[in-house]
């Protein structure tokens, strides 16, 4: 969602540079010709300002949903006494020069729109826009080509959000199960887990940009995530454990690591949002639920992976050893379990799970950014805390609750930009009444 | 590359109002973490509560400066109580997660479009500082190369830092402070002496939070604007870096830490930009140079915590953790 306006603005900036260059040349030419004459007349404010006179401008491109330009549409910008109008050109571009940077009301004259083209449902018109430091302000109007958006009934919407929330919750669970395993075995609250999530998605983007096949990019990204976990443990956490560093200092070290890794990723990846292949997909209808294929795949993949982890933890020797270490490392070591080896495997598994969660999160949002992991870090924490710190199945249940809660709050009238607040708030409330979390044991809380 | 300019602007950071704000907020963290062992990861939230409490009461309700100040302080105290009630009985990492979540909740609420008329959403609020500058006793003119407004905010900011440092110093050598340090060392031992640990922790949380709110106001007044993007979780982590640089269980540590933090940031920025402009460094652009500084902060935080957790001034025996 977010990438579309940015992608547009890049393209627009290129076009805008050319337009600005042409305007500048025209102004210089006019000045050269008019200069002697204008000395005689007193300069007076012109009643109808044209684009050339102002340094600041409001501009945009009008394109319908098939990306075809829309020409000859009248757009007006108003602020106080000032009114400026423009018509979109053959390529859909329009520019209104404005005297000062400030807040303007921009209105698109809908009667001048071509036949069959309408503003998209929910598109504000007129809309209020404000300059922020730059001399040009881009305004986007979204169009739906005469499509009447069907009003979904409440039950339908609820069901759709419920399934989307389940999909989101399960991808959160991938990351939080890893976090919970690491917490259980080492006691570390890892604030750098969000960066492990970002890392997976960024790796897929990088490998895909190297034109490797898509499946290979995914496999390599998962391996890379596991390697990242291994390197972190071997290079940082294991030596710190050897030194006997306390849990609180380790937590602060993980914050430093999170900052460093996040900005290393931004250093190489840049601040823009990038898309993975197949990120765009139309919703499909399955029974009563409409869901995008990507969300459906995400749901299926994470459900399978989590089921596998559950089986490994409950049925295999390794799983038993992991649970033993989580319960009491000293006792586990005394009964012949190689604790360091278990912790290493947990870090590798945690890294791979976080990577997978990151890839799925990149499709859910959709888009890859350098801070995508830290955006959901607190939701992961909320899931883990809700379920009970250190309990793997608690992390699973907590994450699914958080995911569904985040999606459902918008159905019940909470604004979309507040949807994470509900999840964080519910975590605090649960701590009030059941501090050990849903599956936690009383003695763990201390 | 103009070294003189780079060094003079770095020296200017020593006494800038932003440094004063960081010093105050880090002092609040010293009360929380350094003296009481409370892992507050939501100091940015306290700063936001202070800044927004002041700005909203000034702009929406039109109250005079000192009433606005009082409202901001009361709001941050209430925020501390709300945070403390569910978490102070729990282990340190629960408080960490809840405080960071609460700080983010504050940021989401002041960013939402639903409350634009009150909070200004993502653009924030501006033009609330008139009441403050109208109290400026300095006539117009040049004070050490600053105009009277810049000089006034520095005097107020650093005056506040000195007053708060003195108060914290007095508090921590009082019987009350000794109990607090006792809680940091061994909560159960203090409890067995009949002290109400919960109440002491709550008082420490409120005091540190109020310091954070004051810091938020000092941070926002010279800018003349308060914007939610400034109060993200990174701000808290920078404050921790300042605190760890100076020393956890000390009064002057956070102040010196904030000074070092900003001088080093300014120096690295000046030198990197200078190198880029003079084409000595071609593998970097100025945007990446900005990111390089954040990478340095992260690495510095890790190295400090690993190799010198007591900071410049701290005493290893005074650490809040073993």
Structure description:
The complex is a heterodimer of chains A (446) and B (322). By secondary structure, chain A is an alpha+beta fold. Chain A has twelve helices and eleven strands. In chain A, the strands form four sheets. Chain A has a four-stranded antiparallel β-sheet with strand order 3-2-5-7, with no helix packed on it. Chain A has a three-stranded mixed β-sheet with strand order 4-1-8, with no helix packed on it. A two-stranded antiparallel sheet of chain A has the order 6-9. The two termini of chain A are 44 Å apart. Chain B is mainly α and 322 residues long. Chain B has one domain: ABC transporter involved in vitamin B12 uptake, BtuC, CATH 1.10.3470. Helix content of chain B is 71%, strand content 1%. Chain B has 14 helices and two strands, in the order H-H-H-H-H-H-E-H-H-H-H-H-E-H-H-H. In chain B, helix 3 (43-59) runs parallel beside helix 5.
Provide a compact summary of the structure.
The complex is a heterodimer of chains A (446) and B (322). With 446 residues, chain A is an alpha+beta fold.
Key structural traits:
heterodimer; A: 446 residues; alpha+beta; Immunoglobulin-like; ABC transporter involved in vitamin B12 uptake, BtuC; 4-stranded antiparallel sheet; 3-stranded mixed sheet; 12 helices; 11 strands; disordered N terminus; B: 322 residues; mainly alpha; two-stranded antiparallel ribbon; 14 helices; 2 strands
């Amino acid at each position: 969602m977010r990438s579309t306006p940015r992608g547009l603005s890049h393209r627009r900036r290129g076009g805008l540079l050319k337009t600005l260059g042409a305007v500048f040349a025209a102004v210089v030419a006019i000045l050269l010709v008019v200069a002697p004459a204008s000395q005689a007349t007193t300069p007076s404010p012109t009643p109808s300002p044209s684009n050339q006179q102002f340094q600041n401008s409001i501009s945009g491109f009008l394109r319908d949903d098939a990306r075809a330009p829309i020409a000859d549409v009248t757009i007006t910008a108003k602020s106080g006494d000032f009114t400026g109008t423009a018509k979109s050109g053959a390529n859909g571009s329009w520019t209104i020069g404005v005297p000062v940077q400030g807040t303007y009301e921009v209105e698109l004259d809908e009667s001048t729109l071509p036949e069959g083209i309408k503003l998209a449902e929910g598109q504000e018109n007129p809309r209020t826009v404000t300059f922020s430091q730059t001399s040009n302000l881009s305004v986007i109007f979204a169009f739906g080509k005469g499509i009447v958006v069907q009003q979904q009934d409440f039950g339908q919407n609820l069901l759709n959000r419920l399934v989307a929330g389940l999909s989101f919750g399960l991808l959160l669970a991938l990351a939080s199960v890893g976090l919970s395993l690491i917490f259980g075995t080492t006691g570390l609250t890892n604030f750098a887990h969000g960066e492990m999530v970002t890392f997976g998605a960024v790796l897929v983007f990088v490998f895909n940009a190297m034109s490797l096949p898509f499946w290979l990019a995914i496999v390599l990204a998962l391996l890379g995530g596991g390697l990242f976990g291994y390197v972190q443990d071997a290079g940082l956490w294991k030596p710190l454990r050897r030194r006997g560093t306390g849990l609180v200092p380790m937590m602060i070290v993980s914050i430093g690591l999170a900052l460093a890794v996040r900005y290393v990723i931004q250093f190489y990846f840049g601040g823009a949002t990038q898309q993975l292949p197949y990120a765009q997909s139309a919703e499909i209808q399955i029974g009563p639920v409409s869901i995008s294929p990507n969300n459906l795949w995400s749901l299926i993949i994470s459900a399978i992976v989590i089921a596998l982890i559950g089986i490994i933890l409950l049925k295999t020797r390794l799983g038993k050893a992991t649970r033993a270490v989580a319960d009491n490392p000293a006792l586990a070591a005394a009964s012949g379990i190689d604790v360091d080896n278990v912790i290493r495997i947990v870090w590798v598994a945690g890294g791979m799970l976080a990577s997978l969660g990151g890839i799925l999160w990149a499709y859910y949002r959709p888009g890859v950014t350098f801070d995508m992991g830290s955006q959901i870090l607190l939701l992961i924490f909320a899931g883990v805390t809700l379920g009970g710190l250190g309990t793997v199945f608690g992390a699973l249940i907590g994450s699914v609750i958080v995911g569904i809660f985040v999606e459902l709050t918008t159905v019940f009238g909470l604004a979309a930009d507040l949807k994470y607040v509900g999840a964080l708030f519910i975590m605090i409330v649960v701590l009030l009444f059941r501090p050990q979390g849903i599956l936690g044991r009383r003695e763990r809380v201390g | 590359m103009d070294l003189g300019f780079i060094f003079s602007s770095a020296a200017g950071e020593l006494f800038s109002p932003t440094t004063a704000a960081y010093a105050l907020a880090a002092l609040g963290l010293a009360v929380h973490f350094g003296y009481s062992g409370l892992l507050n990861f939501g100091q940015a939230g306290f700063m936001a509560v202070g800044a927004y409490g002041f700005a909203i009461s000034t702009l929406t309700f039109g109250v005079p400066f000192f009433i606005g100040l009082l409202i901001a302080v009361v709001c941050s105290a209430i925020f501390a109580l709300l945070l403390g009630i569910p978490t102070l009985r729990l282990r340190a990492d629960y408080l960490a997660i809840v405080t960071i979540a609460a700080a983010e909740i504050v940021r989401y609420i002041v960013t939402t479009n639903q409350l634009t008329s009150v909070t200004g959403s993502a653009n924030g609020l501006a033009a609330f500082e008139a009441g403050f500058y109208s109290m400026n006793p300095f006539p117009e003119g040049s004070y050490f190369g600053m105009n009277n407004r810049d000089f006034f905010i520095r005097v107020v900011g650093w005056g506040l830092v000195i007053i708060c440092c003195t108060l914290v110093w007095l508090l921590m050598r009082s019987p009350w402070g000794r109990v607090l340090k006792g809680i940091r060392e061994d909560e159960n031992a203090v409890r067995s002496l009949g002290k109400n640990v919960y109440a002491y922790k709550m008082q420490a949380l409120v005091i540190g939070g109020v310091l954070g709110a004051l810091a938020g106001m000092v941070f926002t007044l010279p800018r003349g604007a308060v914007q939610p993007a400034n109060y993200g979780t990174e701000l808290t982590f920078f404050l921790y870096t300042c605190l760890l640089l100076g020393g956890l269980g000390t009064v002057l540590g956070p102040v010196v830490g904030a000074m070092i933090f900003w001088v080093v940031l300014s120096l690295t920025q000046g030198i990197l930009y200078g190198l880029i402009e003079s084409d000595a460094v071609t593998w970097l652009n100025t945007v990446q140079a900005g990111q390089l500084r954040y990478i340095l902060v992260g690495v510095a935080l890790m190295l400090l915590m690993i190799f010198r957790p007591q900071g410049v001034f701290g005493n290893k025996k005074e650490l809040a953790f073993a």
